[in-house]
Amino acid sequence: MADDDREQSEGAVSRRAFLKGGAAATGALSATLMPGVAEAQLPLAKDADPRLTTVDLRVNGVAYRKEVPNSRTLVEFIREDLKLTGTKVGCDRAMCGACTVILNGRNVYACSMLAVEVSGGDVTTIEGLGTTDALHPIQQAFIEKSGFQCGFCTSGQIMSTKALLDKMPRPTEDDARLLMSGNLCRCSAYKRILESVMTASRLLQA
Amino acid sequence: MAQQQNQNATLNVVGTRGPNIDAIARVTGTAKYTGDIELPGMLHARVLRSPHPHARIVGIDTSKAEALPGVKAVITYKDAPKLPIWGSRQFVMNDRVRFVGEGFAAVAATDLETADRALRLIQVQFEQLPFVMDPEEALKPGAPQLFPDGNLEGQARAVTRGSVEQGFKESDRVIERVYRCPTMWSGSMEPHAAIALWEGAKLTMWCSAQSPNRVHMNMTQQFDLSDANCRIISSYVGGGFGTKSAPHVDETIAALLAKKAGRPVKLQYTREEEILDSNTRFEVKMYMRVGVMKDMSIRALDVRAYINQGAYHSRLGGLGNHATHLYNITHLRTQQFRVHTNIANTGPTRGVGDPQECFGLDSVLDEIANEMGWDPMAFRLKNIKRNGDPVPRGQTGVEDGVLINQGAELCINQGAARLGWNRRNPTPGAGQSGPKARGIGMAVTERGGGAGLAGAEVKINLDGSVVMSFASTDIGTGSRTTLSMIASEVLGVPLSKFLTVAGDTEAAPYDGGSQGNRTLQSTGRAVEQAARDCLQQVFAAAAPLLKAMPAELEMRDSVVRVRGDAQRMMALSEVMSRRGRSIVGDGNVAGAQTGMNVERTPGAHFVEVEVDRETGKVRILKYVSAHDVGQPINLTIVENQLEGGTIQGLALTQAEEMRFDPRDGKCLNANFLDLKPPTMMDFDPRVIDIIAVDNKSAFGPFGAKGLGENPNHPGMAAVANAIYNATGVRLREVPFTRADVLQGLGQQRPAAQTARG
Fold this sequence. Notes:
The complex is a heterodimer of chains A (206) and B (757). In chain A, 38% of the residues lie in helices and 13% in strands. By secondary structure, chain A is of the alpha+beta class. Chain A folds into two domains: 14-86 and 110-122, Ubiquitin-like (UB roll) (Roll), CATH 3.10.20; 137-205, [2Fe-2S]-binding domain (DNA polymerase, domain 1), CATH 1.10.150.120. In chain A, strands 2-1-5-3-4 form a five-stranded mixed beta sheet, with helices on both faces. In chain A, strand 3 and strand 4 form a beta hairpin. In chain A, helix 5 (137-144) crosses helix 8. Chain A is elongated, with a radius of gyration of 19 Å. Chain B is α+β, with helices and mostly antiparallel strands and 757 residues long. In chain B, 27% of the residues lie in helices and 26% in strands. In chain B, the strands form eight sheets. In chain B, strands 3-5-1-12-9-10-11 form a seven-stranded mixed beta sheet, sandwiched between helices. A five-stranded mixed beta sheet of chain B has the order 7-16-15-14-8, sandwiched between helices. Chain B has a four-stranded mixed beta sheet with strand order 20-28-29-30, with helices on both faces. The chains are: A alpha+beta (206), B alpha+beta (757).
């Protein structure tokens, strides 16, 4: 009966464990496939410690170069290395959208990408959208329509709204429902989130 | 008091709309939740959890884990205080595990990956024990026993009035049905999190709690601390819904690790941990027997309920008070068996059994109304309690009180008009051709608000700005805003001058916390008192400056004025700076002052569904959620609560059942994909229509009532009743899957007498 737990946790390979284990390989593979990333920017293993890689990321307009463990996820990079805690972790399994950020123009789940995988990329987080003194129109819309309750999913909701409206400036309500369906709100403030998206669309048109 | 009431005849702040005062922090990501806080030298913790539903730990070896570089503390059940968590019978860790996911050891390390690795190095020997997951099975002779005193928690809770057997004899029609609400996930977007910091003998803890003072009580007990040596802070909380309303093991584990390591420790639950170990909504199986007279009155109701508490309870479960406080029933008996089994911890969720009771009671009433050929709404209007009707003030069922300020009839009539109840076809499933069948249903709920002790402190600074401190929390209910609006209304100081300190046990007086519809009603009254206390002190300071009596003064827009004299006035900031000392006012309210057992807060839901008879899909076409809200403090927040709570309640009709494997007790769907909480695509929020029925409380501040829980209750019953009206299929177990609907359509015969499973 000894070591029951060890067998349990190692026997069942979670998606997360797979990600972590395959970190270096995944990173290299994705980087070569990523368009627009110059060869020189490819993450290369350091001589000293093959478990560490230098990552170059532009976050909210600021260029960062950091040596991080290959297993570092993008959301860990954002929250722990850059101390930008506006991006939340709700599930760490790409199932809730609380960690949504914009990477190279697309809304992505930052919990399920590796920092090395997106090296060379351009990231926008909630901190890069507007400030408490100069709110972005989407943030204004979420305030005007009270598109939140507890606020924990809100950063992700707002970043998905940004990606949606960048691509489709005048969505119908059904477009918005579909394109916002990657973001859970457990308080279920959905009616007001939908109104916030539509209001943001109007504010941005104005 | 009369004079104060007159002063408030015209409200300036209360009853308006507007954004939350902390909205900017919430939409810019600057609001700091527990997980966002980092302390110098902070360690990260992980918990080792049982893979077995019931086992004794006969050997544990942590030496390899302790030797791992980066590991700073390892604790096991041997290090845990032999003292139950406040309100529960669970020890923080134990040598006996009673559900899959129960923690029995924990590690603090410099980073999470090291902590994870260390967990795998802990060697454990289990002696597996037989386990039981069904509450009725658990009460049978020979069932596996979780505790030395058995699986039944205390005495069965019983309410008896009259004689149900006599009542059934007298009844013109009696039916008996069984309903079941399974164990349902009720967690929030932010998983449990706790950070413990020891400075000498003093513990400071940041945690995601609804009731910081309950956590405080637990910590002072677990570590034998004075009240002053323990500070709990829950400033921003990412939802709670009841799962964070009581102390939980995570806080104590973090504090034990921090103590042992001599460094601050953060314990952040993963989503899987949060689902497995977060005091989720308990399963209730209800055997219901109801007898009616030909005059549409309810003669007798007999309810036998089995409440599956899981291994432990954060707070004891039960049914709500619908049988005693919502309907007039001549002969009544309810028996509630609270049973421990080897599944996850449970606790109250947006009502203590109210959604479950509402499903059972409002389903069986709908069934008997249909059998008798009565309009279900007319049947309810015949039997609901109205103001002046007797209600029990205690737990026994003896009707020693008189109901006041309850607007059930208003909710029913307004909701019915909005949905168009008169369109309802009285014959279920009749007159509809084609695959799509439409039907209309309703359900009624009620609850009280404002239990326990509450406190608040209001301070006016020398520049006239206001700091309001309270130890209940804003878990998304907007209490920072509504409580500030109450103080703003009393003081005559605009909201823009307010700063709130929420959920801090050191900064604020004792408060029971944010649960049970209580914050607005109880903490709100404490805030009102504290603000009035301040206002009197402001007037006392200003009177000599304005050469007036304090009683002649009033304050509006932060200017103290002599009533009826436009010339004599002084800015609050000037009064304060001349006074040279800040003003502090405090308020404290006892639960008895909130009248919660006689003043009730009802609601009525009406729904039109469309059932696809070929696929079994149920679509909600229109949903009206009408609630008695007392005096709304902030209408935007009221509507947001009612909308969100309604959708969250309706989610239970579709998904969110926690399923456990009967072979090994493991939860089969401990993730969002398999639990399926609804997204905006799963549930079209536009179908929700809210009616906020203004029906002032005699006890709440400015007549406000707590209402956060109520919209969560009636969804299951209302939808089940509508599906029946559309198709003739009666569903007695939630969630209502397409398979259930299709199976019912396939049978299309008088209802079976028992629930599935």
